[in-house]
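dumping this here before i forget
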Amino acid sequence: MIPRKRSLFLCFLIFSSILVTIYYLKFEKKSELNQEVLPPKVEVIERNVSDFSKKVYFLAKLHSNKSIDIMSETDGTIQNRAYQIGKYVKKGQIIIQMTDTRKILELKEIEDLLKASKARLDESSSNYKNSIKLHEKDIISDKEKETQWNLYRSNKFEYEAKKMRYKKVLWEFDNLSIRAPFDGYVNKFYFDVGQKVTRGAAILEFLDNNTLIGKANLSSINAEAIRKSNNKLLIKNKNLYYQGELLGIARQMSNDAPSYKLEFKINNKESNFIAGEVVEVEVVTAKYKNFISFPSSAIVMEDNEYFIFLTKDEIVKKIKVSPTQLDNKLFIVPQIQIPILHKIIINGQAKLESNDKIRINK
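structure:
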C-alpha cells in the first residue's frame, strides 16, 4: 500500500513540474515579445522661443592708472609712518615724518640771524629816510646822506641773502614731511621707522586708484569678436556688474604669449576694486532674437552636417539644422527651423529615424 502512495506522490510532483514549466515558458516568452514591441523611451524639451546673447568671458588684471615713487628731497631719518599700506590718503596729508637734528638747529639759527638782519634793515631804513629830510634842510651834507644810503643798501642785501638762505633751510625742513601729492593709496614703503634716507631715494610707492586699467590676453577669435561687437565691457565684482570702457585691442600678437592684448579702464571712485586683483570680464558679442535653444546632447552629426530629432504625437521627425553655439552647453537655431507643436528630443535619439514611434520619459 505504501509503495502505491509513493508512486502517486511522484506522479503528482512530475505533473506539477510540467505545469509550472509550461506556465513559465508561455508567459516569459509573451513578456519578451511585449518588450520587443514597446517603442524606445526618450527625453524631450519644449519648443520655447526666446532672445539670446552670445558672450565672451575672460580674466583681466587691474592696474593703477597713476603710480609713482615719491622721492625724498632731503636727508633724514624715518620718525613715524602715519598710514599703513593700502590706506587711502587725501592730497597734502603727511604720510611719513622724518627728522634731522642738524636741520632743526640750522633752522633755529637762521631764524635768529634773519630776525637780527631785519632789525638792522629797519634801523638803516629809518636812518636813511631821516637823512633825506635833514639833507633837504641843509643840516647834513651829500656825503652823509650817501653814507646812510650805502648802509641801508648793504643791510638790505644782507637781509635778502639771509631770507634766501632761510627759505632754503625751511624748504629742506618742510621736506622732512612726506605728503600725498594727490588723493590716493599707499602701496609700498621702501624704508622702515628708524632707517636713514638720503636725498633722491625712493621712499614710498603711491597710487591713484580712482581709475583702474584692466589688462588681458585674448585668443584671436575672441579679439575679433569683441572688435566687431562695439559693445560695452561688464566687470563682475561680488555678483554685481560695473561698466568698463574699452581702450583698445592690439593688432599684433604678443611676443610673450600667443594672444592679443586688450586694455580697458573702469571708474573706481567708490573703491569697488583693488589694484592688482584679477576680475572676470563679460562682453556681449552677438544678439539673437526669436531663437530656440537646446543642449548639445540633442545634436547628431552625419557627414559634417547637423541633425536634431523632433517629436509630435510620439512620432519622430529628423531635421537638418544650422545651429549656433551659444556657450559650452547650449546651441540655438532660428525659430523657423523647428516646426511649431513639436518637441525636441535631447536624449535617446541615437538609433531613431523619421516616423519611428517613441515613448516620452515623464
